[in-house]
């Protein structure tokens, strides 16, 4: 059985943006502020360092088993660290093969950058993918190569199609406190942020502000 997954406010980490603070400290503060899921992402780390980083994040959240820890790209690291899942993109290992390695009890996220990507994801065997990351909503300096944004209308369309196919959908790219409500209004199950939390002077406050923007009633 998959672990519970509430992606309402999904933090994707960036080691450089967190620096000089340890990523695990930023994650812990952000979770206390309202982050509901965490993805450990470090495009510059060796596999060995990514494993250590993932273990440090898991340890920091030992008292928060309700907050799943997902590893970006690296299924081997996810398994070794006992993480709750892995997120892969269109250029990473194929989702079906990642699912075969992960087994049935971990979460698998897949990036979707177009209607064609989503159509392909929906043709995968049921249970392969749990959540699609619709990306990018807006162009973002955090990942310039992600290119121009899909826009809110296109994201809304993709969300409806994903839901009709039984998949959760989250949105990523350019989401900050000022844009979080608009992104959430597309109907996504959650919004993902990198710089809005990792680069914030106060990650706890940043997460609380984002959470209030996404789900004002729940935050009160
Ligand atoms: C939730 C979520 N959605 C999309 C992405 C982007 O993944 P990918 O396309 O593999 O790009 P990298 O993150 O590996 O640079 C994501 N990480 N998380
Ligand atoms: C990790 C990632 N993936 C993207 C994609 O479009 O595939 S955009 C992105 C980074 C999002 O950072 P920020 O919240 O700082 O804009
Ligand atoms: Mg990737």
From TrEMBL:
Q: What class of enzyme is it?
A: transferase
Example GO biological process term? thiamine biosynthetic process
Keyword Metal-binding assigned: yes
Ranges for domain Thiamine phosphate synthase/TenI come to: 9-197
| Textual note on the cofactor | Binds 1 Mg(2+) ion per subunit.
Organism of provenance: Blastococcus aggregatus
What is any one of the record's Gene Ontology cellular component terms?
Answer: cytoplasm
Q: What is its EC number?
A: 2.5.1.3
Give the residues the record marks as binding 4-amino-2-methyl-5-(diphosphooxymethyl)pyrimidine: 39-43, 72, 111, 143
Keywords of the record, alphabetical order, are:
Magnesium, Metal-binding, Thiamine biosynthesis, Transferase
Recorded protein name is Thiamine-phosphate synthase
Family the UniProt entry places it in? Belongs to the thiamine-phosphate synthase family.
Positions contributing to 2-[(2R,5Z)-2-carboxy-4-methylthiazol-5(2H)-ylidene]ethyl phosphate binding: 140-142, 174, 194-195
